[in-house]
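lol so apparently i was supposed to do this last week
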Amino acid sequence: MNSPRKSDQLVLGIETSCDETAAAVVRNGRDIISSIIASQDQIHALFGGVVPEIASRKHTELLTMVVQRALDAGGVSWEDLAGIAVTNGPGLIGSLLVGVSAAKAYHAATGVPLVGVNHLQAHVAANFAAVCDKPLSAEHLPAVCLIASGGHSDLVRISHATDYELLGATRDDAAGEAFDKAARVLKLGYPGGPAVAAAAEAGSPEAFDFPRPKVGASLDFSFSGLKTALIRQVEQLQGDDDEAALDDHTVADLAASFQAAVVDTLVRNTMAAVAQVAAKHLAIAGGVAANQLLREKLEQKCARAGVMLHRPPPELCTDNAVMVAIGGHFLLAEREPDNLDLDVFSAMPR
Ligand code: KG4
Ligand code: ZN
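anyway here it is w/ KG4 bound
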């Protein structure tokens, strides 16, 4: 972690859109001064997924402590800050309200400018962090970005740090949602993506022939058929006894084959998007971008296509507040800050 200098622009980021309570301080939209994440995974794992009411309550309990720790860890005080950036959507409304209400209170008490950040733009903004493998910067734009999270699978063309155009999106489940559902079917626990990836290590990606769904000639995704194919395969293996447990080896093969199908589908459409807009730069974002197989396959394809791949480290792909601070840094440079009217929104306005 770096320590701040006086001339630096420091932005505090706050993220509470789902089940991570996070705060971070970032210098000049690139350097991480501090980053604190209190994960609620263990609590929600008991229920097999995020329970919105519990998530909001936990954010309420944890947020002020997490913010204070982010400031203390960086040796930063309120008067050092140029902005307070907070995720205001999309996400769970109750969870978003906790972060936004706290950010408004900090803004009212300290006078530090407030800025609401779109969670998906924040995921994209993670690519500008100095710790990335080839950090993105203005001279690399326009670039294509694959945003693959629990709620979204989007392909976008980034023309400017805060501005992008949608090239393709999922028609049904998001990639992360597909991983989470697969983990439930295979009884691997929550969160599903890392659990499926871990189980897949002992399996063969060729053991089962799952589809690589295509939506006509578009860049859109559809993962619900793949999920159904996995369910059908499990039912077939179980035979007459739908409670029958599958052996570890079969579960590993199913996980590896499923992961390969999701990754192949993401890689195919992503490289098609890169070709379609003749991009020379590809960025990746969202929790699924932490997936090792996806990262490796994109690296191979980009090397062959002469495209530069920009990759945030896995901990900046899953939810964090560094990306919110970076997103806020860019917004504050180009528009008026928000005020106490700042609202939250649950879904992306399309
Ligand atoms: O971006 P994120 O942390 O939260 C949302 O904005 O949704 O993404 C969470 C999603 C979950 O569905 C999780 O299972 C998936 O990302 N995920 C992964 C991996 N790590 C997290 N999927 C595949 N492989 C991983 N290593
Ligand atoms: Zn996210």
